[in-house]
Amino acid sequence: QRMISLKNLTKVYGQGEESIKVLDNLDIDVAAGEILAVVGPSGAGKSTLAQCINLLERPTSGQIIVNGEDLARLPERKLRVARRRIGTIFQSASLLSRRTAAENIALPLQYLGVTPAETKSRVGELLEREGLSHRATHYPFELSGGQLQRVGIARALALRPAVLLSDEATSGLDPETTRSVVALLRELRDDLDLAVVFITHEMDTVLHVADSAARLHAGRIAEQGSLLELLTDH
Ligand code: ADP
Ligand code: ADP
């Protein structure tokens, strides 16, 4: 059972002679309970891919199938709801600085009109799952890099998405913090049966986090397979 499938995904920027094909016919499948890493050098198309997956950019052609539904061609008014199926974490956790950890996690639920009681219970559950209960009322400036990223993960999971997209989320973290974030992602993929797309330029991290990997080069998938296959091909 495929949780997220990209089929013939193509993204072209610009028109005519000025146009540039940034993603060229990508096919990527990630099952529930799987972490797929997408690695590639700068300029390979990783951010564009991330923006297509979290529905901020429309692909020029191709499909983005989540839970059996193609989200690539949804009308604008349906995108906001569809976005809930995909939680995103970024390089900087990008939390609101004047809100506590708990308030940051609660935001997506409040926007959605989830009742205060339900919000409180879900936020409490998420904080506990991520070992952050003792940091609930702390502000971002009072948290370590790893704690910030964990709050970011909790916020991304608040709406119970099927897919978690990690867009360079461990880039810029020190090795130890990276390890703890990676361990958490692996735990979450097991406990919540999440399909995780882990986009990074850091090959080292991929070895620790992913079940399988795709190597992106100039908008195309140069290689795809188990980590072992990817390593032994070099
Ligand atoms: P990466 O994240 O792997 O560095 P990007 O997706 O940022 O790759 O960029 C891939 C290519 O697409 C680059 O050549 C970049 O200049 C080009 N590109 C990205 N966004 C746009 C845009 N909005 N308009 C035109 N070209 C773009
Ligand atoms: P249920 O949703 O019926 O409780 P699940 O197996 O989906 O059963 O969830 C197990 C536990 O994990 C529950 O406590 C649930 O609230 C919580 N949970 C499920 N999905 C998520 C998610 N994406 N983020 C945070 N908590 C979740």
From TrEMBL:
The keyword Ribonucleoprotein does not apply. The lineage of its organism: Bacteria, Bacillati, Actinomycetota, Actinomycetes, Micrococcales. The keyword Calcium does not apply. It comes from Paeniglutamicibacter antarcticus. Keywords: Amino-acid transport, ATP-binding, Cell membrane, Membrane, Nucleotide-binding, Translocase, Transport. This is ATP-binding cassette domain-containing protein. Residues 4-234 form the ABC transporter domain. The chain holds residues 44 to 277 of 391 of the full protein. It comes from the Bacteria. GO terms for molecular function: ATP binding.
